[in-house]
Amino acid sequence: MKIQFETHLDFYENDIKNLISPIPIKKNLPDWYVNFTVPEIPKKSEDYLFDSFIKKRKIIKNCMPVADYLQSGYMIPAWEDMFFYKDSDGILKLRTTIDSYLPPEQRDSNHSYHNVKQFYDFSKTNIFSEYYGERNIVKDENFNIIKLLNPWSIITPPGYSTLFMRPFYHDQKINILPAIVDTDSFNSKINFPFFLNINIEETYRISLGDPLIMIFPFKRDSWKSDIKFNAIQKPDGFTTKINNYYKNFIRKIKKD
Predict the structure, then answer these.
(1) CA nearest 88: which of 148, 149, 146, 142?
(2) Higher-confidence residue: 64 or 242?
(3) Residue 40 DSSP class
(4) Distance CA 161, CA 180 (A)
(5) What is the domain partition of the chain in residue ranges?
């Protein structure tokens, strides 16, 4: 299977094109994941044996479900430098390097927005508050949610859709609103509403080439569920005593 990315952007130099081109996630793993270490504990410490056990097995880097998440999809990097800030009302604003070439009165028109009324009930939830963060009470008509104007069209084979979400394990604050698009039939550019939890009058930068949007193509299918109570527990106690049991006997290798 093949996923295709197309863009109208053709004015970048080749080295910049390499930075902004979508790539498999596994080619841009988080630094903390690649360089993961467990702090040393002195041998005389009562935690030493536990520490040794942790080093051998129980670290996130040895967790195959996390590894598969970080090796199974694609990533759209930031296609330009982006500067986010909240004004005195706590309304999130975005400025980019392209904006700097526009007259001040045209800079807001270079971006797309959803008014909060389109999110109204959602805007009253805890998850909205957690992802958006601090803001003052303003009239709804003045409270807009910015969308990232993604330059890429994404095309999948017939029967395949795409899940879009934030780069969860990367050191990135941006919260792309997760969504699924039938990219086998919708081949226009997909723009992404997002939240960013920063303080009022704080500025946050995402640099060109930084991880921005995660992409997971998948095959659509019809599912039915079956729920059972008092099911017979399968004997699996011995599996916890075998190092890397899931990795060596259960896990299926994921290919590009």
Answers:
(1) 142
(2) 64
(3) -
(4) 7
(5) 4-25+75-221, 31-69
